[in-house]
Specification:
The protein is an alpha/beta fold. It is 26% helix and 30% strand. The chain has a single domain, classed as Metallo-beta-lactamase, Chain A (4-Layer Sandwich), CATH 3.60.15.
């Protein structure tokens, strides 16, 4: 099982999960061209995609979706609420329901409701029968439902958006600061640490922090929060908007491989 973080942050979000002979793209928040270039940096073609799953309708998660799926005719899955806000033409896929798992090839995919200012946002859990990967960004709180569903995952990719003090004293206007810090905004570093602690178990092999704010966070501070929340000795990391990361879980252990954006 492996995950590729192709883009992370308010300028665009996109990731890929591969396991069980199945390849799924999570969000398409950068252009089709950028998605193809970034996949190619890892030796992957967009023609290999079995599906695209969407967390929610904000532009930094769907900006490149329509052009991508029109060119590659890949199925798209999202909640009914998200479909109501996204205009995209595709030849397959459909609606998903939070809490209800479905199969895409060799992967079982479970959407889990998040708390964000979007129509019907979700996180995802991917399972191949042996391992589970949890992917969660854009939530103001790590809810009980998220905690229960993510408990015992092998790989965890989770938002570490902002430092509360940096946000409070930063350049954003007060209404935007309130939105980010609200229950329908984004996780602060200390909330990310608490969330990791809540779901950590002997199964957890690696943790990666995502969606770092360039204005309201610090890479080292975010890394420390992720590291503190994770069990001792497991690989941890954070991804900034200027880099990509491959996280692979195989028989030899865990690989964290950083790449420059092409």
């Amino acid at each position: 099982m492996e995950a590729l973080v192709l883009a992370s942050g308010s300028s665009g979000n996109c990731a890929l999960v591969r396991a069980g002979g199945t390849t799924i793209l999570i969000d398409a928040g950068v252009s089709r061209l950028q998605i193809c270039r970034r996949l190619a940096a890892f030796g992957i073609s967009a023609n290999e995609l079995d599906a695209v799953v969407i967390t929610h309708e904000h532009g930094d998660h769907v900006r490149g979706l329509d052009v991508l799926v029109r060119q590659f005719d890949v199925p798209v899955w999202m909640t009914a609420g998200t479909w109501s806000r996204v205009k995209v033409r595709c030849g397959g896929g459909g609606e998903i329901t939070p809490g209800r798992a479905w199969a895409i090839g060799g992967l079982e995919v479970t959407p889990v409701a998040t708390s964000h200012d979007a129509a019907e946002p979700v996180a995802f859990i991917f399972g191949d029968g042996d391992r589970r990967l949890g992917y969660c960004t854009d939530t103001g709180v790590f809810t009980t439902a998220l905690q229960q569903r993510f408990d015992g995952v092998d790989l965890l990719l989770i938002e570490a958006n902002h430092d509360s003090d940096l946000l409070r004293h930063g350049p954003y206007p007060w209404p935007l600061k309130q939105r980010i810090a609200s229950r329908h905004g984004h996780l602060a570093n200390h909330q990310t640490q608490e969330a990791i602690e809540a779901v950590a178990s002997s199964a957890l092999k690696a943790v990666v922090g995502l969606h770092l704010s360039a204005e309201n966070n610090d890479q080292m501070v975010a890394h420390k929060a992720v590291e503190t929340g994770a069990p001792d000795g497991i690989p941890v990391g954070v991804v900034t908007r200027s880099e990509m990361l491959r996280v692979a879980l195989n028989g030899q252990g865990v690989v964290l491989e950083r790449r420059e954006i092409p």
